[in-house]
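Exam revision sheet. Question 4 asks you to relate a sequence to its structure. Input first:
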Amino acid sequence: MVAPKKSGPLGLAGASELFQLLRDGRPRTRAELAATTGLARSTVGLRLDTLLDLGLIRPIGDGASSGGRPPSQFALNPSARVVVGADLGATHATIAVADLGGVILRTHRARLPIAEGPERVLGWVADEARTLLAEAGRTVADLLAVGLGLPGPVEHDTGRPVNPPIMPGWDGFDVPGRILDALGVPALVDNDVNIMAIGEKTRSFPDVSDLLFVKVATGIGSGIISGGLLQRGAQGSAGDIGHVRIERGKGVECHCGNFGCLEAMASGP
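Answer key, C-alpha cells:
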C-alpha cells in the first residue's frame, strides 16, 4: 500500500525500518543498530527518539561496556499499541487483534462470502475490529494499522484488487481507503497466500531462501519466495495457480466462469 521512503503508520520511513529490526524482541544498542543499518549513530538516535516518543520501544538497561559508561539498550514495547489482521477467504472471514509482539488478544471467525462485495465485507471488518478491541480492553486510539489478506491478485503498491476471478465488485476498489475512512489507520493489503508464505518463512523457516507455499481450501493459491523475497509478479498474480487450466479439467466449469481450472477440480467445498 505504502511505497518505500514515504511516511507510514510510525510517521517516518526510517523509524519504521528500526522498528522492524526491534520487532524480534532482542535488545540492541545504538551502535548495534547503526552497524546493522549502515546509518550514522546520530541518525539512529533521532529515529529512536521518534519511536520512544510514540511509546513503541523502551530502554531496558545497559549493554556490555568496552570502557566508560555502558551503552543503553532498546527493545520493543509490545503492549504499546495493537494491530488488526483479517483473512478474507472465498466463504469465511477471520479477524484478530494482536499486540506488537504478535500475541493474539482476541479473534473471531464467521461465514462471510467475499462475493457479497467490498462495502459489505469491509464494513464487517471495521465493525468486528471495534468489537474485538473493546473485548481486549483497547480502543481505536490504540490501533496502529490493519493487515488484510484477499483471495485474489492485489496491486501491492495501492492495495487494490486486480481482476480477481471470484470477487465480483472488488476490481480496483480502494480497500486501504475504505479502512482508513472507517478506522482512521493505514491498511496493508495483499493476496492471502502471499501473507501466509511470508508468515511460514518468518516463523518456521527463517533460514530458507526458496519456498513454495500452497493453500488448498475453497480456493487454491500459492505464495512464492525466491532468494528470500516474495515474488508477486505482474499485477500480483505470480502465485495465482488456482485458475490455471489443466487437461483433465476439460468441460468442468469453475465458479470464476471459465472451464478446466485447477480450482474447479481440486479445491475443497
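Marking note for examiners. The longest strand covers residues 92-99.
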